[in-house]
């Protein structure tokens, strides 16, 4: 592979990619490790699209210009606009392979996993806290983030989530957060699993049969839910009596009670006991065909290769059976759904839409294309980074923008890129790139496993939540639990008599390195609290509340416009002389240079002659203020807010 | 010659609206026109209508009807820890978590016979907010957008539809477009964020920015005529009118006395209720305030107690306060939720209650609605509606009726599909007229 050695960002990027796609210790070569394989796969996709055009008698759309490609490639693959340096490096070099090299550079950037993390958090509803649950979901968040960081294959990730059991703080088993975040609502959890992983919408069957009689019935739904049944905390029974006593007694609302809550809620409450029984009682109001209200039924899968459990012989691994069924026994459904989700992410529109309602391949508009991408997904071992790499290398990805709607209902007709407002996270990540420089150079959010009592860290440097959880969950009787509790109380009280200030500056003592970032930090959206609070910029621009699958919205509202004109954007960027953007103007010699630099930095393109005229007038009339006015105007422009 | 060179001669107000007129959006026709005030409702509806405003309090997650507005004191098995307490109206009881609400029952009309066909959160709250089932092919406008579209704004500058502490997806303009979406308020204490000029920016520079941005946008627009791109340009114009409004202080809770603020309580919902009162006093049409956390699958009683603590104080304060300032007459206050909770308790989930769309409760007050009454009945187990069933579409139509809006007027989406505030033909709502005095 030719490397643009003049440009360190390109050279190092390509090298880093080659390293990053090889998981530690893996000796076998995978097809995607060969760049020629990726290109060939991209070509095959393009050939399919070309034959579609031929059949329809349509001409193939133009390929877009470099500047549009640059911005699109950055926003789609790493979720932010390029810095001025990155933009110039790409625009000013003449090399026929530079688009390919840019894609390699981007996929090797830490920005890739940051941007994918937002996707995963929206899809899996990853929140730091869940309303009504006094539990910290930090370890689960960290598990998902780490899985994305390490390119855990999607089938493995799905399997680990669905089959999870055990200690919520142990990094090996922290995927249990997928279930414990939904504890008490196992039916919603199953409905979401089917939607997320298999593109099957079953939430209606939670309450009633399909009135049209051709889809899932309520009994099917319960039989599916039976696989995941039995989601009590691990061994919390041993603590129940002690906890109830403290809850009623005079210790209630004291620091000692907080320590009991730490064990009861944050340790036991996050854990998941058992591996799924495989049977379930129908609800008392059940009144449909085939079963009686309250009847005990065994688990049974509704389609694909059937897996079932007898209601009379409950098991302890039914969640694993479900995980295996979802990932390996549903025909092409599992691979098609994830391939189409990735297609939508890269191309802006799914091969069929909506992406979470699976269409049997033979019924879709482009069965051959669906089969091709589904096979590709399988062949590359569900490596989402490599799969997106292929898509980003296609000519289809490079098609010029076309604002006209697709002629194919419920899918793409590949007539060009649609115009779409950036996601809340893309806008945020782009703005902080302008105000604070390349955000991918900052350390990622660390894993906060400090023990906290009433919000304050204790036993810092002595014990972590991970250790505490391991010890607590190993206790084997009521007596042991009581002894441990008393021991923990004295340990904490000795270490931190009074108000627990000893843990004050705890950032230094975090186990796993990294930083803690609060809601005001100028870092990637993926590193901020999840979701950001309701008055945060991200929320105003439509970030998902992560209570519902993919609840993000790009709908405009007046709050967004106010924020651009007067609020956050003004404070942090436009009127902030220390913003990175203005710092980067220092070495520019002339006014024209500066204007050009601002255009490149904000819109990733040089100004047209006409625009240069407008902006020069501005600077002549308003001097230094003129630059602020230009920045404000460019950031407020639709060109900044929309992906072309 | 730039008209802004004469800026000093103009008052701030004239100046700003000039900026809007000259540069932003006015050269574009609004996507679907403004309100359709010409579409007059049937005379008998309009004549009876007393309400001008709606305050829509949304209990997000599914409020348990058994533990709040539909207790069954004789049926101990389903009541669990909840006790029924008397109210200031003979014969009407509420759960013991609502002592303050009990004292304003004479002003409330409790509908105990709500029924929905949607039992999952997303679908349930969608139909409550739009009268239509969730589809993947179209976004339906939410209630506030319908009210704005059918009734028009009452105030020239303030946003007609404001949503406090609410998920953005619930309060969108749908196919009406962004102009009809709610102006979002995250934290009521901060009011409408960023509605004042940044302090470093003079008026001259501000309008120069708008002028430059407008030049950029025209360019972009010519290249890509797109509804969302247009929407942003219109929003800039609305935002400038708003910034300039003399009534912007409607959003400022610090203008309220400490005593009043305490009356409502301190949470986001509570202060949101107070803000809602200020907004309707300033001619905002529709205010939605959400209170989350009602999804009490696990330990229902602790959950309901926690939610009711904030709700009860704030709701009773709002009703009392509106009545005292004379606004209860023309403000319809709605308490709504996507479904109720199962009367039977789920012991495995520490006495949790699951989703129950078959029967639940909503409450109306003000805006011409009779007080001190209940409508409809559930059976002894609070399981099914026995009398006076009110569908989700019926409730929404009743809101339209209270406002005197043509709720059955057909409007077309840009894709030429017909829609009504009352919902689709086959389950079109009918107003429950007997609730009105």
TrEMBL record, chain A:
**Domain DUF1549 per the UniProt entry, residue ranges:** 44-229
Keyword Signal present in the record's keywords: the answer is yes
Q: Where in this chain does the record put each DUF1553 domain?
A: 319-613
| Keyword Transferase in annotation | no
Which first-to-last residue range defines the signal peptide? 1-26
Q: Mind listing the UniProt keywords for this protein, alphabetically?
A: Signal
Q: Name one Pfam family in it.
A: PSD1
Q: What is this protein called?
A: DUF1549 domain-containing protein
**What is the scientific name of the source organism?**
Luteolibacter pohnpeiensis
From TrEMBL, chain B:
* Protein's recorded name: DUF1501 domain-containing protein
């Amino acid at each position: 592979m030719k490397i643009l050695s003049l440009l360190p960002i390109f050279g190092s990027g390509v090298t880093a990619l080659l390293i990053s796609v090889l998981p530690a210790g893996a000796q076998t070569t995978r097809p995607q490790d060969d760049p020629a394989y990726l290109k060939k796969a991209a070509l095959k996709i393009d050939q399919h699209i070309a034959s579609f055009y031929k059949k329809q008698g349509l001409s193939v759309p133009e390929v877009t210009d470099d500047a549009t490609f640059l911005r699109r490639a950055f926003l789609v693959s790493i979720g932010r606009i390029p810095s001025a340096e990155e933009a110039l490096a790409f625009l000013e070099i003449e090399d026929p392979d530079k688009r390919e090299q840019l894609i390699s550079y981007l996929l090797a950037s830490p920005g890739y996993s940051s941007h994918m993390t937002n996707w995963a958090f929206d899809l899996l509803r990853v929140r730091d806290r869940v309303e009504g649950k006094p539990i910290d979901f930090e370890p689960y968040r960290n598990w998902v983030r780490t899985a994305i960081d390490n390119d855990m294959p999607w089938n493995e990730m799905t399997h680990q989530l669905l089959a999870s059991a055990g200690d919520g703080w142990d990094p090996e088993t922290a995927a249990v957060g997928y279930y414990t975040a939904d504890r008490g609502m196992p039916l919603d959890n199953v409905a979401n699993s089917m939607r997320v992983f298999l593109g099957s919408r079953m939430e209606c069957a939670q309450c009633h049969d399909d009135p049209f009689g051709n889809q899932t019935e309520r009994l099917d739904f319960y039989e599916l839910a039976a696989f995941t049944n039995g989601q009590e905390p691990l061994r919390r029974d041993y603590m129940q009596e002690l906890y109830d006593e403290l809850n009623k007694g005079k210790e209630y609302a004291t620091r000692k009670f907080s320590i009991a809550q730490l064990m009861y809620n944050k340790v036991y409450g996050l854990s998941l006991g058992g591996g799924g029984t495989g049977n379930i009682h129908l609800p008392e109001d059940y009144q449909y065909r085939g079963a009686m209200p309250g009847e005990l039924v065994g688990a049974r899968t509704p389609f694909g290769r059937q897996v079932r459990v007898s209601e009379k012989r409950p098991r302890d691994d039914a969640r694993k059976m479900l995980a295996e069924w979802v990932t390996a026994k549903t025909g092409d459904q599992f691979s098609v759904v994830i391939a189409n989700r990735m297609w939508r992410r890269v191309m802006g529109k799914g091969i069929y839409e909506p992406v979470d309602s699976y269409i049997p391949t033979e019924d879709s508009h482009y069965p051959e294309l669906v089969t091709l991408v589904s096979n590709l997904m399988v062949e590359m071992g569900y490596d989402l980074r490599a799969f997106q790499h292929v898509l980003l290398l296609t000519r289809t990805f490079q098609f010029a923008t076309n604002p006209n709607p697709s002629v194919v209902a419920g899918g793409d007709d590949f007539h060009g890129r649609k115009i779409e407002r950036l996601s809340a996270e893309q806008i945020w990540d782009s703005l902080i790139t302008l105000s604070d420089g390349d955000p991918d150079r900052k350390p990622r959010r660390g894993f906060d496993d400090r023990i906290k009592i009433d919000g304050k860290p204790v036993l810092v440097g002595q014990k972590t939540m991970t250790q505490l959880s391991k010890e607590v969950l190993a206790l084997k009787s009521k007596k042991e639990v009581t002894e441990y509790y008393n021991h923990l109380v004295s340990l904490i009280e000795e270490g931190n008599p009074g108000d627990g200030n000893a843990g004050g500056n705890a950032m230094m003592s975090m186990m796993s390195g990294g930083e803690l970032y609060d809601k005001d930090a100028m870092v990637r959206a993926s590193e901020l609290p999840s979701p950001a609070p309701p008055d945060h910029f991200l929320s105003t621009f439509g970030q998902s509340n992560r209570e519902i699958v993919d609840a993000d919205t790009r709908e405009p509202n007046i709050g967004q416009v106010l924020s651009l004109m007067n609020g956050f954007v003004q404070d942090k960027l436009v009127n902030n002389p220390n913003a990175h953007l203005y710092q980067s103007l220092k070495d520019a010699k002339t006014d024209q240079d500066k204007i050009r630099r601002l255009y490149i930095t904000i819109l990733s393109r040089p100004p047209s002659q006409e625009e240069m005229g407008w902006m020069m007038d501005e600077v002549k009339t308003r001097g230094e203020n003129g630059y602020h006015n230009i920045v404000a105007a460019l950031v407020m422009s639709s060109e900044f807010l929309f992906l072309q | 010659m730039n008209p802004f060179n004469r800026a000093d001669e103009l008052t701030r107000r004239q100046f700003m609206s000039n900026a809007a007129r000259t540069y932003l959006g006015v050269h574009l026709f609004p996507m679907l026109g403004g309100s359709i005030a010409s579409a007059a409702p049937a005379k008998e509806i309009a004549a009876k209508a007393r309400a001008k405003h709606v305050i829509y309090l949304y209990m997000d997650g599914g409020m348990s009807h058994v533990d709040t507005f539909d207790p069954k004191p004789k049926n101990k098995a389903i009541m669990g820890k909840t006790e029924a307490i008397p109210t200031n109206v003979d014969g009407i009881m509420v759960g013991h978590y609502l002592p303050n609400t009990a004292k304003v029952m004479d002003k409330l009309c409790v509908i105990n016979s709500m029924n929905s066909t949607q039992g999952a959160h997303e679908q349930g709250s969608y139909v409550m907010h739009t009268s239509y089932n969730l589809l993947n092919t179209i976004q339906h406008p939410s209630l506030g957008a319908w009210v704005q579209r059918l009734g028009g704004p009452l105030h020239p500058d303030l946003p007609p539809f404001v949503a406090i502490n609410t998920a953005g997806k619930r309060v969108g303009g749908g196919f009406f477009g962004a102009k009809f979406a709610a102006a979002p308020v995250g934290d009521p204490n901060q009011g409408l964020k960023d509605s004042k000029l940044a302090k470093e920016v003079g008026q001259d520079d501000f309008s120069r920015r708008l002028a430059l941005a407008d030049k950029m946008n025209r360019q972009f627009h010519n290249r890509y005529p797109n509804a969302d791109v247009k929407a942003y340009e219109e929003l800039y114009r609305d935002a400038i009118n708003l910034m300039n409004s003399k009534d912007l202080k409607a959003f400022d809770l610090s203008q309220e006395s400490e005593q009043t603020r305490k009356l409502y309580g301190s949470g986001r919902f509570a202060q949101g209720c107070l803000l809602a009162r200020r907004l309707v006093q300033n001619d905002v049409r529709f205010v939605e305030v959400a209170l989350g956390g009602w999804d009490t699958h696990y330990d229902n009683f602790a959950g309901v107690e926690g939610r009711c603590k904030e709700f009860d104080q704030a709701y009773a304060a709002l009703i009392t306060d509106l009545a005292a300032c004379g606004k209860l007459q023309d403000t319809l206050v709605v308490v709504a939720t996507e479904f109720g909770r199962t009367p039977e308790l789920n012991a495995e989930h520490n006495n949790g209650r699951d989703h129950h769309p078959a029967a639940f409760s909503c409450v109306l007050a003000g805006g011409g609605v009779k007080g001190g009454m209940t409508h409809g009945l559930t059976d002894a187990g609070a399981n099914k509606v026995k009398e006076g069933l009110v569908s989700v579409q019926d409730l929404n139509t009743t809101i339209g009726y209270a406002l005197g809006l043509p709720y059955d007027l057909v409007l077309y989406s840009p894709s030429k599909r017909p829609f009504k505030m009352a919902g689709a033909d086959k389950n079109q709502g009918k107003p429950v007229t007997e609730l009105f005095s």
